[in-house]
Protein backbone atom coordinates (compact mmCIF):
# COMPACT_ATOMS: atom_id res chain seq x y z
CA UNK A 1 0.00 0.00 0.00
CA UNK A 2 1.34 3.40 -0.98
CA UNK A 3 1.01 5.87 1.95
CA UNK A 4 2.69 8.76 0.13
CA UNK A 5 0.33 11.33 -1.37
CA UNK A 6 0.60 11.76 -5.07
CA UNK A 7 -0.29 15.52 -4.96
CA UNK A 8 2.79 17.35 -3.61
CA UNK A 9 2.11 20.77 -5.12
CA UNK A 10 1.15 22.62 -1.81
CA UNK A 11 0.08 26.29 -2.16
CA UNK A 12 0.57 28.10 -5.39
CA UNK A 13 2.28 31.48 -5.57
CA UNK A 14 -1.04 33.12 -6.39
CA UNK A 15 -2.64 31.58 -3.31
CA UNK A 16 0.22 32.81 -1.11
CA UNK A 17 -0.09 36.31 -2.55
CA UNK A 18 -3.82 36.30 -1.85
CA UNK A 19 -3.19 35.22 1.75
CA UNK A 20 -0.56 37.96 2.20
CA UNK A 21 -2.89 40.58 0.70
CA UNK A 22 -5.81 39.56 2.91
CA UNK A 23 -3.55 39.50 5.97
CA UNK A 24 -2.31 42.97 5.10
CA UNK A 25 -5.85 44.27 4.83
CA UNK A 26 -6.69 42.75 8.21
CA UNK A 27 -3.62 44.37 9.81
CA UNK A 28 -4.51 47.73 8.24
CA UNK A 29 -8.06 47.45 9.56
CA UNK A 30 -6.79 46.58 13.04
CA UNK A 31 -4.33 49.50 13.03
CA UNK A 32 -7.04 51.84 11.80
CA UNK A 33 -9.38 50.74 14.56
CA UNK A 34 -6.59 51.12 17.12
CA UNK A 35 -5.76 54.65 15.97
CA UNK A 36 -9.43 55.61 16.01
CA UNK A 37 -9.89 54.28 19.53
CA UNK A 38 -6.71 55.99 20.69
CA UNK A 39 -7.87 59.28 19.20
CA UNK A 40 -11.25 58.92 20.91
CA UNK A 41 -9.53 58.20 24.22
CA UNK A 42 -7.29 61.25 23.82
CA UNK A 43 -10.28 63.44 23.05
CA UNK A 44 -12.11 62.07 26.09
CA UNK A 45 -9.06 62.82 28.26
CA UNK A 46 -8.95 66.38 26.94
CA UNK A 47 -12.67 66.88 27.51
CA UNK A 48 -12.34 65.41 31.00
CA UNK A 49 -9.52 67.84 31.83
CA UNK A 50 -11.56 70.77 30.55
CA UNK A 51 -14.58 69.64 32.58
CA UNK A 52 -12.46 69.34 35.71
CA UNK A 53 -11.09 72.84 35.21
CA UNK A 54 -14.62 74.13 34.77
CA UNK A 55 -15.86 72.46 37.94
CA UNK A 56 -12.91 73.64 40.02
CA UNK A 57 -13.10 77.22 38.78
CA UNK A 58 -16.86 77.63 39.05
CA UNK A 59 -17.06 75.98 42.48
CA UNK A 60 -14.37 78.18 44.03
CA UNK A 61 -15.61 81.37 42.38
CA UNK A 62 -19.19 80.84 43.47
CA UNK A 63 -18.29 79.83 47.01
CA UNK A 64 -16.01 82.83 47.49
CA UNK A 65 -18.19 85.43 45.79
CA UNK A 66 -21.13 84.46 47.98
CA UNK A 67 -19.00 85.61 50.92
CA UNK A 68 -18.37 89.08 49.47
CA UNK A 69 -19.20 91.68 52.10
CA UNK A 70 -19.66 89.15 54.91
CA UNK A 71 -19.79 91.35 58.01
CA UNK A 72 -21.39 89.58 60.99
CA UNK A 73 -20.53 92.40 63.41
CA UNK A 74 -22.05 95.06 61.10
CA UNK A 75 -18.81 97.01 61.18
CA UNK A 76 -19.40 98.42 57.70
CA UNK A 77 -15.82 97.70 56.71
CA UNK A 78 -16.36 94.86 54.24
CA UNK A 79 -17.67 94.68 50.70
CA UNK A 80 -16.76 94.60 47.02
CA UNK A 81 -13.64 96.65 46.31
CA UNK A 82 -12.82 96.13 42.60
CA UNK A 83 -14.98 95.34 39.57
CA UNK A 84 -12.77 96.59 36.74
CA UNK A 85 -10.05 95.18 34.52
CA UNK A 86 -6.42 94.17 35.06
CA UNK A 87 -3.59 92.99 32.85
CA UNK A 88 -1.71 89.72 33.31
CA UNK A 89 0.73 91.45 35.67
CA UNK A 90 -2.15 92.42 37.97
CA UNK A 91 -1.97 96.09 37.06
CA UNK A 92 -5.18 98.04 36.52
CA UNK A 93 -5.78 98.32 32.77
CA UNK A 94 -9.02 99.11 30.93
CA UNK A 95 -7.70 96.95 28.07
CA UNK A 96 -7.12 93.99 30.39
CA UNK A 97 -9.22 91.09 31.61
CA UNK A 98 -12.09 91.12 34.07
CA UNK A 99 -10.97 90.97 37.70
CA UNK A 100 -12.88 90.92 40.96
CA UNK A 101 -11.90 91.81 44.51
CA UNK A 102 -13.85 91.76 47.75
CA UNK A 103 -13.37 91.65 51.49
CA UNK A 104 -15.10 89.39 54.01
CA UNK A 105 -14.80 89.04 57.78
CA UNK A 106 -14.02 85.34 57.84
CA UNK A 107 -12.95 85.29 61.50
CA UNK A 108 -15.90 87.47 62.60
CA UNK A 109 -13.85 89.96 64.60
CA UNK A 110 -14.98 93.13 62.82
CA UNK A 111 -11.42 93.88 61.65
CA UNK A 112 -10.09 93.51 58.11
CA UNK A 113 -7.15 91.10 58.36
CA UNK A 114 -4.41 90.55 55.80
CA UNK A 115 -5.96 87.35 54.48
CA UNK A 116 -9.51 88.66 54.18
CA UNK A 117 -9.12 90.45 50.85
CA UNK A 118 -9.77 88.04 47.97
CA UNK A 119 -8.89 88.80 44.35
CA UNK A 120 -9.54 86.79 41.20
CA UNK A 121 -7.65 87.60 38.00
CA UNK A 122 -5.99 86.01 34.98
CA UNK A 123 -2.23 85.48 34.80
CA UNK A 124 0.44 83.32 33.20
CA UNK A 125 1.57 80.57 35.51
CA UNK A 126 5.02 78.98 35.37
CA UNK A 127 5.85 76.97 32.26
CA UNK A 128 2.51 77.90 30.73
CA UNK A 129 3.65 81.51 30.25
CA UNK A 130 3.03 82.73 26.73
CA UNK A 131 0.36 80.13 25.99
CA UNK A 132 -3.12 79.83 27.47
CA UNK A 133 -3.64 81.97 30.56
CA UNK A 134 -4.65 80.68 33.98
CA UNK A 135 -6.98 81.80 36.76
CA UNK A 136 -5.40 83.07 39.96
CA UNK A 137 -6.76 83.58 43.46
CA UNK A 138 -5.00 85.95 45.85
CA UNK A 139 -5.92 86.21 49.53
CA UNK A 140 -3.02 88.42 50.52
CA UNK A 141 -0.09 86.08 49.99
CA UNK A 142 0.33 86.63 46.26
CA UNK A 143 -1.47 85.14 43.32
CA UNK A 144 -1.90 81.38 43.52
CA UNK A 145 -3.01 79.05 40.74
CA UNK A 146 -6.70 78.22 40.94
CA UNK A 147 -7.28 76.68 37.50
CA UNK A 148 -5.16 76.21 34.39
CA UNK A 149 -6.02 77.00 30.79
CA UNK A 150 -8.64 79.66 31.45
CA UNK A 151 -8.40 81.55 28.18
CA UNK A 152 -10.83 84.29 29.15
CA UNK A 153 -12.96 85.41 32.07
CA UNK A 154 -15.87 87.81 31.84
CA UNK A 155 -17.64 89.44 34.76
CA UNK A 156 -20.69 91.69 34.85
CA UNK A 157 -22.69 92.98 37.77
CA UNK A 158 -26.35 93.37 38.65
CA UNK A 159 -27.30 95.93 41.27
CA UNK A 160 -30.06 97.30 43.47
CA UNK A 161 -29.57 101.05 43.80
CA UNK A 162 -32.67 101.75 45.87
CA UNK A 163 -32.19 98.62 48.00
CA UNK A 164 -35.75 97.44 47.39
CA UNK A 165 -34.55 93.82 47.27
CA UNK A 166 -35.05 93.61 43.50
CA UNK A 167 -32.36 93.81 40.83
CA UNK A 168 -32.59 96.93 38.69
CA UNK A 169 -33.88 96.40 35.15
CA UNK A 170 -34.19 98.16 31.81
CA UNK A 171 -36.78 98.05 29.05
CA UNK A 172 -35.66 96.10 25.98
CA UNK A 173 -36.50 96.91 22.38
CA UNK A 174 -39.25 94.28 22.65
CA UNK A 175 -40.77 96.07 25.62
CA UNK A 176 -39.77 93.47 28.23
CA UNK A 177 -37.84 94.05 31.44
CA UNK A 178 -34.34 92.58 31.76
CA UNK A 179 -31.80 92.71 34.57
CA UNK A 180 -29.03 95.22 33.91
CA UNK A 181 -25.61 93.58 33.67
CA UNK A 182 -23.06 96.35 33.98
CA UNK A 183 -19.29 96.85 33.96
CA UNK A 184 -16.82 99.46 35.16
CA UNK A 185 -15.49 100.32 31.71
CA UNK A 186 -13.01 102.99 32.85
CA UNK A 187 -11.76 101.40 36.11
CA UNK A 188 -12.95 104.33 38.23
CA UNK A 189 -14.68 102.18 40.83
CA UNK A 190 -18.24 102.67 39.55
CA UNK A 191 -20.22 100.72 36.98
CA UNK A 192 -21.08 102.92 34.04
CA UNK A 193 -22.17 100.79 31.07
CA UNK A 194 -24.47 97.83 30.47
CA UNK A 195 -23.26 95.08 28.15
CA UNK A 196 -26.48 94.78 26.14
CA UNK A 197 -25.55 97.56 23.72
CA UNK A 198 -28.49 97.20 21.32
CA UNK A 199 -31.07 96.66 24.04
CA UNK A 200 -32.46 93.39 22.67
CA UNK A 201 -32.27 91.70 26.07
CA UNK A 202 -29.27 89.45 25.33
CA UNK A 203 -25.50 89.85 25.47
CA UNK A 204 -24.21 88.54 22.13
CA UNK A 205 -21.60 89.31 19.49
CA UNK A 206 -23.98 91.72 17.77
CA UNK A 207 -23.41 94.04 20.73
CA UNK A 208 -19.84 94.50 19.49
CA UNK A 209 -18.80 97.57 17.50
CA UNK A 210 -17.65 95.71 14.39
CA UNK A 211 -17.85 92.31 12.73
CA UNK A 212 -18.11 90.56 16.07
CA UNK A 213 -14.95 88.45 15.75
CA UNK A 214 -12.25 89.59 18.19
CA UNK A 215 -13.20 92.81 19.91
CA UNK A 216 -14.66 94.38 23.04
CA UNK A 217 -18.28 95.25 23.67
CA UNK A 218 -18.38 98.94 24.53
CA UNK A 219 -21.86 98.72 26.00
CA UNK A 220 -24.57 101.32 26.50
CA UNK A 221 -24.06 104.11 29.02
CA UNK A 222 -26.02 103.96 32.27
CA UNK A 223 -28.00 107.05 33.22
CA UNK A 224 -26.04 107.31 36.49
CA UNK A 225 -22.85 105.49 37.56
CA UNK A 226 -23.49 102.77 40.14
CA UNK A 227 -21.40 102.24 43.28
CA UNK A 228 -19.85 98.85 44.06
CA UNK A 229 -21.80 98.80 47.34
CA UNK A 230 -24.99 98.37 45.29
CA UNK A 231 -23.87 95.13 43.60
CA UNK A 232 -26.14 92.21 44.40
CA UNK A 233 -25.15 89.57 41.83
CA UNK A 234 -22.16 88.65 39.68
CA UNK A 235 -22.49 87.04 36.26
CA UNK A 236 -19.49 84.90 35.33
CA UNK A 237 -18.31 83.67 31.95
CA UNK A 238 -15.32 81.30 31.75
CA UNK A 239 -13.75 80.14 28.50
CA UNK A 240 -11.71 77.02 29.23
CA UNK A 241 -9.34 75.53 26.65
CA UNK A 242 -7.07 72.54 26.33
CA UNK A 243 -3.40 73.30 26.90
CA UNK A 244 -2.26 72.22 23.42
CA UNK A 245 -3.97 70.94 20.29
CA UNK A 246 -4.04 67.14 20.35
CA UNK A 247 -5.11 66.69 16.73
CA UNK A 248 -4.61 69.01 13.82
CA UNK A 249 -7.88 67.84 12.22
CA UNK A 250 -9.90 69.56 14.96
CA UNK A 251 -10.91 73.12 14.14
CA UNK A 252 -12.76 75.58 16.34
CA UNK A 253 -14.81 78.02 14.22
CA UNK A 254 -16.99 79.23 17.09
CA UNK A 255 -17.42 82.77 18.31
CA UNK A 256 -17.48 83.11 22.09
CA UNK A 257 -18.96 85.99 24.07
CA UNK A 258 -17.12 86.14 27.40
CA UNK A 259 -18.49 89.13 29.26
CA UNK A 260 -17.44 92.15 27.23
CA UNK A 261 -15.00 90.09 25.11
CA UNK A 262 -15.90 88.64 21.72
CA UNK A 263 -13.45 85.91 20.70
CA UNK A 264 -13.23 83.86 17.52
CA UNK A 265 -10.04 81.77 17.98
CA UNK A 266 -10.12 79.79 14.70
CA UNK A 267 -7.46 77.33 15.79
CA UNK A 268 -7.14 73.65 16.76
CA UNK A 269 -7.88 73.90 20.49
CA UNK A 270 -10.97 72.43 22.06
CA UNK A 271 -12.88 74.79 24.35
CA UNK A 272 -15.87 75.02 26.60
CA UNK A 273 -17.70 78.20 27.59
CA UNK A 274 -19.53 78.11 30.91
CA UNK A 275 -21.75 80.82 32.35
CA UNK A 276 -23.25 81.17 35.81
CA UNK A 277 -24.70 83.80 38.12
CA UNK A 278 -23.82 84.20 41.80
CA UNK A 279 -26.02 86.04 44.28
CA UNK A 280 -24.07 88.23 46.72
CA UNK A 281 -26.20 87.44 49.74
CA UNK A 282 -24.10 89.50 52.15
CA UNK A 283 -24.26 92.73 50.17
CA UNK A 284 -26.72 95.42 51.25
CA UNK A 285 -27.49 93.92 54.64
CA UNK A 286 -26.12 96.95 56.51
CA UNK A 287 -28.29 99.43 54.61
Description:
The chain is α+β, with helices and mostly antiparallel strands. The chain has a domain at 41-67 and 150-279. The chain has one helix at residues 13-65, and strands spanning 80-82, 85-86, 97-98, 100-103, 117-123, 134-138, 144-147, 150-159, 169-171, 177-179, 182-183, 190-194, 215-216, 220-227, 231-241, 256-258, 261-263, 271-279. A hairpin with a 2-residue loop joins strand 16 and strand 17. The longest helix has 53 residues, at 13-65.
Q: Calculate the mean pLDDT score and round it.
A: 88
Number of strands: 18
Beta content: 25-35%
Shape: elongated
Give the ordered list of helices and strands.
Answer: HEEEEEEEEEEEEEEEEEE
Strand order of the largest sheet: 1-4-5-6-7
Q: Describe the biggest sheet?
A: 5 strands, antiparallel
First and last CA, distance: 117 Å
Uncertain runs are none
Structural class comes to alpha+beta
List the total number of helices.
1
Q: How much helix is in the residues?
A: 10-25%
Rg over C-alpha atoms, rounded to the nearest angstrom:
28 Å
Amino acid sequence: MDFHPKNKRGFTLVELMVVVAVSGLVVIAIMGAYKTQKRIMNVQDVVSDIQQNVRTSVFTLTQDIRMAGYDPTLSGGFGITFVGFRDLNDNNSVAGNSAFQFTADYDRDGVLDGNETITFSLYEFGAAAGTITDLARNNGGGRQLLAENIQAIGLAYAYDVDNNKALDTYTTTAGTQQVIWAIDSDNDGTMDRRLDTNGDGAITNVDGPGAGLNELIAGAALATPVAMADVRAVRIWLLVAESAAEHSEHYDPNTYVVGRQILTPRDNLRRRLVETTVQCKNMGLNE
